[in-house]
C-alpha cells in the first residue's frame, strides 16, 4: 500500500492559538489541489479528516472523498481556540512530564490519538490512498510504520499542504493492543515500510 500523506493548508488563525480539533478555516485550497493533483496517481481514492481545513482540500482532489473522524487532529478539549500563553502553566508542565498519556481537560492523550489513527489505517484495503489530515495524524503514521523513536517522530517537520509518500507492506500488521510504546509504537516487526519522500 502506498500512502500519500497530505497535511491541510495553513489555518486562518493567529499564531500561538491551540487549535487541535478546533474547526478553523484555512487558506484557499485550490492552488494546493492543482499542484497536488500533478503529484498523485490519477483517480487515487482520498480519505480525509472531516475538519474543514482538510475536507475542502480533499473535495478538490476527488469527486467523492471518504471522511473518517479517526483521522481528525488530537483533541485539546478545553484548550481549543485558547492562546497557548493563557493555558495553566502547571497543566502544561504536567503534560510535558507524560506527553503520551496526559489528556488536557475534556481532551485526549497522544496515546488515544495513536490508537484511533492506526486503527483506521490498519483497515485500509486500497492499494494506493491519499490521506488529507493533520500534522499529529501524519506523524503518528510515520512513527508507527517506520518504527521511529518517539522523540524523533513527534518533531517531524511537516509543511502545510505538503505531500509525503510512505509505502507499507501490510503482511503481519496488527492492531495495537499493548498501549503506547515510546520506542517503536508497538508496530509488528514483520511490517515493512519505506518513506520515499517528505514534504513535496
Short key terms for the protein model shown above:
28% helix; alpha/beta; Rossmann fold; 200 residues; globular; 6 strands
Provide a compact summary of the structure.
The chain is of the alpha/beta class. It has six helices and six strands. β2, α2 (52-61) and β3 form a beta-alpha-beta unit.
SSE diagram, text form:
Layout: E1 2-7, H1 30-37, E2 46-48, H2 52-61, E3 66-67, H3 89-97, H4 110-122, E4 128-133, H5 135-146, H6 150-153, E5 163-169, E6 192-197
Parallel strand pairs: 1-4, 2-3, 2-4
Antiparallel strand pairs: 1-5, 5-6
Helix pairs in contact: 1-2, 4-5
Description:
The chain is of the alpha/beta class and 200 residues long. It has a single domain, classed as Phosphoglycerate mutase-like (Rossmann fold). The protein contains six helices and six strands; from the N terminus they run E-H-E-H-E-H-H-E-H-H-E-E. The chain has helices spanning 30-37, 52-61, 89-97, 110-122, 135-146, 150-153, and strands spanning 2-7, 46-48, 66-67, 128-133, 163-169, 192-197. It has a six-stranded mixed sheet. The longest helix is centred in the middle third of the chain and has 13 residues, at 110-122. The chain is globular. 30% of the residues are buried. Residues 172-188 have low confidence and may be disordered.
Amino acid at each position: 500500500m502506498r500512502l500519500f500523506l497530505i497535511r491541510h493548508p495553513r489555518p486562518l488563525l493567529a499564531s500561538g492559538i491551540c487549535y487541535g480539533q478546533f474547526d478553523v478555516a484555512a487558506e484557499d485550497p485550490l492552488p494546493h489541489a492543482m499542484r497536488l493533483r500533478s503529484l498523485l496517481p490519477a483517480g487515487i481514492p482520498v480519505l480525509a479528516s472531516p475538519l474543514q481545513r482538510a475536507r475542502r482540500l480533499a473535495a478538490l482532489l476527488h469527486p467523492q472523498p471518504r471522511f473518517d473522524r479517526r483521522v481528525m487532529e488530537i483533541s485539546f478539549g478545553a484548550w481549543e481556540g485558547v492562546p497557548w500563553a493563557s493555558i495553566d502553566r502547571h497543566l502544561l508542565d504536567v503534560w510535558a512530564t507524560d506527553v503520551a498519556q496526559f489528556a488536557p481537560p475534556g481532551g485526549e492523550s497522544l496515546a488515544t490519538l495513536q490508537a484511533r489513527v492506526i486503527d483506521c489505517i490498519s483497515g485500509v484495503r486500497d492499494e494506493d490512498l491519499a490521506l488529507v489530515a493533520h500534522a499529529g495524524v501524519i506523524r503518528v503514521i510515520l512513527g508507527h510504520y517506520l518504527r521511529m523513536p518517539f522523540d524523533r517522530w513527534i518533531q517531524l517537520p511537516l509543511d502545510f499542504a505538503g505531500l509525503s509518500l510512505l509505502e507499507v507492506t501490510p503482511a503481519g500488521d496488527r492492531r495495537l493492543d499493548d498501549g503506547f510504546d515510546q520506542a517503536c509504537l508497538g508496530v509488528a516487526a514483520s511490517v515493512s515500510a519505506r518513506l520515499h519522500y517528505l514534504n513535496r
